[in-house]
Design brief:
Elements: E1 14-16, H1 23-31, E2 34-38, E3 41-46, H2 50-55, E4 69-76, E5 82-90, E6 95-99, H3 104-114, E7 121-124, E8 129-135, H4 139-145, E9 155-161, E10 164-170, E11 179-184, H5 188-197, E12 201-202, H6 206-215, H7 251-260, E13 265-272, E14 283-286, E15 289-300, E16 305-313, E17 321-324, E18 327-332
Parallel strand pairs: 1-15, 2-12
Antiparallel strand pairs: 2-8, 3-6, 3-7, 4-5, 5-6, 8-11, 9-10, 10-11, 13-16, 13-18, 14-15, 14-17, 15-16, 17-18
Helix pairs in contact: 1-6
Length: 340
């Protein structure tokens, strides 16, 4: 299998600085109810064999939860390297896959190789749908005020926002968003207005990058490249791998690491003592030895400091003092604690 060309070269560290988000946006993400439209590739899958096909390539289990479920996972190369991470919604008549746009080329190669049309028909519906993600401490209360019933964590349901029919999903665990709403593109403006009327703060998509960093959630092209194994970027911690399901592509490597070994690097949080050096300086150094690289950085106005993510060698311990992006920092547990 050809590895995803979108992951061959990592982008410089993602920086969410004070010049990108104002304090209102940051407060909405951390303490309020933020809503952002996000650019994702969306595929509908139908056919008698669709569950079997997805089960055969995804790191997580889509059979056991049954219809009206939402799971997170990845598709891998035969050697266990991540091709694409994605959210999978299973309904009674179809499955919907939501993935980063950078994953499109690699994901479509998976479809061609493992999804025979007689078993699973794949439709790219990206141009027809609009995706909203909601995050913040007050999301659930504001959603109830807006008049739509939320499904339980890990589940999916249909709902009406005004006169627009939506598909609403809620991730389980510590995902970087609380609710995901998929709507017809021609109804997106109405949904945005309805959410705004009930106290949701419309934020730029970059605000969700802040939520992602706080959650310690890996991103394709940032923490994930063509050589990344799921366990290196917290897939065990974020419920992205099932060790009890049947076989899937790349399972042998993933299972061997889980039961018999460990990775040589891992994803850690970072908290700086002062503003880091410019983004192009991504090295993490402990003492005089390079031990990793910074992947993402975000400014927290209330703390008057930067937080971030980095991939570091296994010998680096949580709480170690390092120099990251040219400035003193401390490695930290994920998800990051940023207070109220």
């Amino acid at each position: 299998m050809t590895e995803s060309p979108t992951a061959d070269s990592l982008q410089p560290p993602m920086v969410v600085g004070p010049e990108h988000l104002d304090e209102r946006d940051v407060d909405a993400v951390l303490n309020g109810a933020a809503v952002a439209r996000v650019d994702q590739a969306v595929y509908d899958l139908t056919g008698a064999g669709v569950v079997t096909c997805v089960q055969g390539v995804l790191t997580n289990d889509v059979e056991a939860p049954g219809p009206d479920s939402l799971v997170f996972g990845a598709v891998l190369t035969p050697k266990g390297k991540i091709v694409a991470d994605l959210w999978v919604t299973r309904r009674s008549d179809r499955m919907t896959l939501v993935a980063p746009p950078e994953a499109r080329a690699g994901l479509e190669k998976i479809f061609m190789r493992y999804f025979p049309p007689r078993l699973a028909r794949v439709s790219d519906v990206t141009a027809e749908r609009c995706l909203f993600r909601l995050t913040g401490a007050k999301v659930l209360g504001r959603a109830a005020m807006a008049g739509f019933t939320l499904p339980h964590p890990g589940r999916a349901a249909d709902a009406m926002l005004g006169d627009v029919e939506c598909e609403v999903t809620r991730p389980s665990g510590a995902a970087p968003f609380s609710v995901q709403i998929l709507v017809p593109r021609d109804g997106a403006e109405k949904v945005g207005v309805t959410l705004g009327r009930f106290g949701f703060t419309e934020t730029p998509p970059l605000a969700l990058e802040l939520a992602r960093i706080v959650a310690g959630w890996p991103k394709l092209g940032t923490e994930i490249d063509a050589k990344t194994l799921p366990q290196e970027v917290r897939f065990d911690d974020i419920d992205g791998v099932s060790y009890s399901k049947g076989c899937y592509t790349g399972q042998e490597t993933v299972a061997r690491l889980h039961f018999r070994g460990h990775t040589n690097r891992y994803l850690t949080g970072l908290v700086w003592e002062k503003r880091p050096a410019p983004a192009e300086s991504s090295a993490i150094v402990r003492g005089d030895r390079p031990v990793g690289r910074v992947t993402a950085v975000a400014w927290i106005p209330r703390l008057e400091t930067f937080i971030g993510l980095g991939l570091v060698r296994r010998e680096v311990q949580i709480g170690d003092e390092v120099t990251a992006a040219g400035a003193p920092a401390i490695t930290s547990l994920l998800p990051l604690s940023v207070g109220a």
